[in-house]
Each structure stands twice: as structure tokens, then as C-alpha cells.
Amino acid sequence: MTPHPHEVSPGRSWPLGVTPGGDGANVAVWAPEAERVELCLFDESGHETRVALPYNDGGIWHARVGRIGHGARYGIRAAGPPSHKSTAFNEHKLLIDPYARALDVPARWNARMAGVAVTPVGHDTTRARDVRDSAHVVPKGIVLADAPGPDPAANRPHHPTADLVIYEAHLKGLSAAHPDVPEHLRGTYAGAAHPVIIDHLVSLGVNAVEFLPLQAFFDDRAVVERGLTNYWGYQPIAWHAPEPRYASADADAELRKLVHTLHEAGIEVFVDVVYNHNGEGGEGGVTLSLRGLHETGYFRMHDGAHVDDTGTGNTIAAERPMVLRLILDSMRHWATRYGIDGFRFDLAAAVGRRADGFDPEAAFFQAVRQDPTLAGLRLIAEPWDLGPGGYQLGAFWHPWSEWNDRFRDDIRRAWRGDPLAIAPLGKRVLGSADTFDHGRRAATASVNFVTAHDGFTLADVVSFAHKHNDANREHGRDGHNENFSDNLGAEGATHDAEILGARAQRLRAMLATLLTAQGVPMLLAGDELGNSQQGNNNAYAQDNPTGWVDWSGRDEELLGFVRHAIAARHRLPVLRQETFLHGRTRDDGRRDVEWLRPDGDPTQSADWEDEGFRTVTVVLRGAADDPRGACLAGAVAVVINTGDDADVHLPEPDSGGIWRVEFDSARPITFENGAAATTHDPAAAPYPAMAQSLTLLSCD
User: Fold this and answer.
1) What phi, psi does 414 have (nearest 5°)?
2) Domain 578-699, architecture per CATH
3) Predicted TM-score (pTM) of this structure
């Protein structure tokens, strides 16, 4: 091999990755079972220069390599013997550095990425190293210098957790079809930062955006062979690098600018992170990064085979020190370089597993809690995985919040009219204390949602009784079969005015429930517009108008209602308390929560067990035995009517005056100085609660 021009000296075994400085860079790669590790540099023509890393400290191969600077493109090769410990070493495969902070192109499956060649021999097969070189089909890492431009970590909004209204969005899907975003910016980081998108978020009233995965991900073989892409991004391949397909030119700079722009608008930024598995798959998967460096170290194995608690073929061994270090280094990188305010952890139970199952005190949780960089950030769990005992809703400890799928299911069931569904709805409206009120957790531990990226949009919840996933080309096998949805008389699109009116009414009622419940509400991007995915409840591979937000057909009346409902939530602190409400008596002699029948009398146990009981009023005040609750004056009344039209007798307002109608989901909204212009005097007449409606009233 031609001698290379790069001077090599010992350098250091930390930090891991490629760190530029002076006239070169320090290179450090963890591969404790390898016999040789090489840094592979690529020039503009694609010519490869290999530089051996001759120094090893504790399994970390390292060196200082001269003549490497900002913009250099590189990969890693690792060689070692196949053995009972690891069979994945293959020097013919270029590997993405686990610490690569940028990639030059998106990662998409190619047959040359296979580490093992499987050859049919009669009725059997043989397995051997695949000797096809993969360099020209593998994305290269890019060496980054210090970050330019405004610092997105310097202008964080820092909202109180109870004040959050989260907006879950796919970065590309948010702007890809927006007619007012310049075409060349649609679907990019810059497109999401465009003023028309920012103005929409601000006017809507949301103050946190939760993006689906932004860490570089992989279009795996399964989607490529079906002619699709991994649109959602839940196949990570480089945890430090922002996904390059969302960049118009420079992913690093554009993501920093996006976060800074959102912060300037008072909007926090959360990122959905996938540390439970990576995109290399299980047996027979690709050798693209972790597998080629230390398969048995990075992944959980049992009897020589991958443990699959994630449904993707592999599970990351987050309990092991060097793997935990990689995850924490990645989180710190996103928090400091990109100013990310919080993380939503996909299949979070998987990162909290020990050999005997899930443990809320697992190494990962302890490490995050004590880390000074991460301790003040939002931590949100998807509290399950697919392994034994994987459903762990309510099992995460402070300061974690959790996606509450019981809220989603119970609210859908109640508004669909399922029997005996009003009692579970009542629990969800009060923050799901039955699940989260332990260990001094706050009511904000529950992240409430009616819809999320995984499932129907809200318009589809009221338009489809069954999933319609043919476009995914999986013959209908994918996606949830039970969605607790209802088409109200016609499957999908219809011109029937009565059906359309019923759908609109139920949709507004479900959104109103979300925005008046204790806990932290999360709204799916596009639900405020009436966005539909045509009945696809698993649009993970739909990088097309099906998976994008449709701005052209937006429902202006619905949008106005959602804006008004969010404004009411921000205006009424009784709706967003830290402390759970249990009907305890306050210092003023009133209970912090009261449940009333339509006749105005308190509910009895028999009411909740009556299938015909579908109308209830809940009166909320500041929490008893909590100084914050004691400071809250006034009350709100939430009239929930999942049944037919009903006359509802309201209690006298605490102030002895009249109730202000903040909104009624069944009636058009009239505005007066940004607030509802109607009032109700309970002494004059009962309130006429229309069928399938939620009414919010307040008094001082």
C-alpha cells in the first residue's frame, strides 16, 4: 500500500471519535476485541487512504493523525479473528464511526453492506465473510470544527413543565407540502425554520415541538426492497450526527439555526431518540457500524444470538459502561451543540433493563439523573418495549414523564360511546393519578395524547373504523388492528353533511378533552388542521403526501377552535397543576375537585357503574395541601357529555357571580378581546349541553 502523508503519534484515548485541533486530529475508537483498527480518509474523488491506529489503551485504539481538518471525510475499518466471542470483524466493510458528528449522505441499504455471505448448498447454507468492499456505498463521517453562528443552547425558553403544550411533528412532513415555504426549502431544517411555520406554531399556542428522530438513520433492506424509505427514522445509525437528508446544504448549521429560531419564538425543542437498538438488524443484518467494532459488546446477546426486545433484530446493551458512555455522550452533544431541551426515548423500557428485567434504578437512569448537563432537560419515556414484562407505564421515577397510552385509548373509547367508559375518562382528566401518583411524582408525569405519529391522525379516528395500510406493501400485517375509532356512518371520505358534522363535533370534543386534562398535552402536527392519512395508521414508510401535513385543505374553523382552547389552557392555571387532585378540602372549605350529575347533585358510585351515565361535570380548584394550589383563586367547570343533548345544572360559582363560557366544542366560537364572549347564569337556567360536547366554564 502506498505510504500515507499523515504523521501519526500517540494522541489520547479520549474523547472518542475524531476531534480536530491544530494541524491534525485525535482519533479514538473502542474495539476491544479487534486486532487492527484503521482510520480511512477519502478525498473528493473517493480515493481512500488508510491510517492504522497503533496505540491501544483499555480496548480503545487511538492516535493523533496529522493533516486532518474540518470537512475531512472518513470511516473506520476493524480487523480481527472470527471466534466464539465475535464473528463480525470484516476489514472489507467500511464502518461509520459511532461518534461521527456529521454524515455526507443518507444511509440506504445496499447488498455490499452485508458482513456475511450466505450461500445455498443443497438444502442447507454456508456462511462466510462477505469480501465485497462496501466503501462506495457507506456514508462517510465528516470532521466538524467548532460550531458557527448563534448558540442555540444560549436562548432556551425554560417553560415550567406544567405550562407545556407539546406539538409532535415529523421535520420533513411539517413543511414538505406547505405552499408558502419556498420549494427548495420544503422538508428541510430550513423549511421548518421558515417564518410561516414559526408563525403557525406561535399563533397556535404550542410552546414545545417534539420532532421524530433527527439522528442519522438507515433505510433498511425491508423498506428498500419494497421501493420505500424509512420515513419516520426509527433505524438509527449514527447517534451524534443530524440526518443529512433534511439539509438543504449543511445539516449541522441548519439544525442549529432551526433550534435557535424556535427558541427565539419561545418554543422548546425535544427530539425523539432511539437508543434501544440500531439499524444494523439482527442475524444476517448489515455490518455498518457497531456490529463491525464490537458486536457482543454493543448488543445484548444470549447463547450467541441477538436478544430482540425491540422488534428490530437487536437490542443495545445500555447497561454496559462503554455503551452507556456512548449514549450519554450523544445526549450531551445534542444538548450542547444543538441546544436540544429534551428527549423522548423510543421504547424506553429497553434502556432500563437488567438481566432480570426492567429496573427504574438501572445504570442509565442513574447516570442521566446525576449528569450536570442532562439533569435539567426534559426526559420523556415511551414506557414499554417488546420484551418480557415490557409494559412499564407509571414505573419511571421523577424527573421522567411518560407517554400515557391509556389516556389515548380511554378518551377514544368514551367519545366513541363505549359502555362504562365515563369512569376511565374521569381518571384521565385528573392526570391518571391511578398510574402516576406515587413516589412524589407530579401530575405532569403524564404526557397526554389522543393521537401520535404511530397510529391514526385525529381526523382518521373519526373517519375510519379499520386501518388502510396497503401503501406500506406489507399485505395489511402492519399497524394496530384496534384503534378505538369509528367512521360515524361511512368509511373514509364522504359528502354526507350529517356524517361530516358528527365527525367534526367528536373531533373537537376529543381535542377539548386533551386540552382541559391535568398533565402535559401533546398535539399531533396537522390535527389542528383536520389532516388525514387516508386511513393509514402506520405511515412509517410514507415519505409522500400521505405522511406529510396537508396545509392546502386545512379546516379553518377547527384551527380557530384549537387556538382558542390552547389559549384558555394557558389563561387558566387550574387546568395545569403540578399536584394531583383527590377531592380534598382546601383552606377555604371547598374541595379541590367535585364530580356532579346533570341534576347538580354529587355523583354516587352507582352512577359510574351505570351504562347510561354519559354526562358529568367536574369542578376544579387549586389543589389542597399544596401552597401553589392555595394561591389559585376561582374555579373551572368542565361539562363532559358523551351522550345525547342534556340540561346540566351547574353549581353556584365560588364568587357568587356567573360562569364564563370559555368554549363549547359543539357551538361556534365568538371572540371578544381574545376571550369567549358568552356567559351562563346557573340561577336562570340549566346549561344546554349538546350531544358529543365538552364545555369549559370559569369563574373568579
Assistant:
1) -65, -45
2) Sandwich (2.60)
3) 0.97
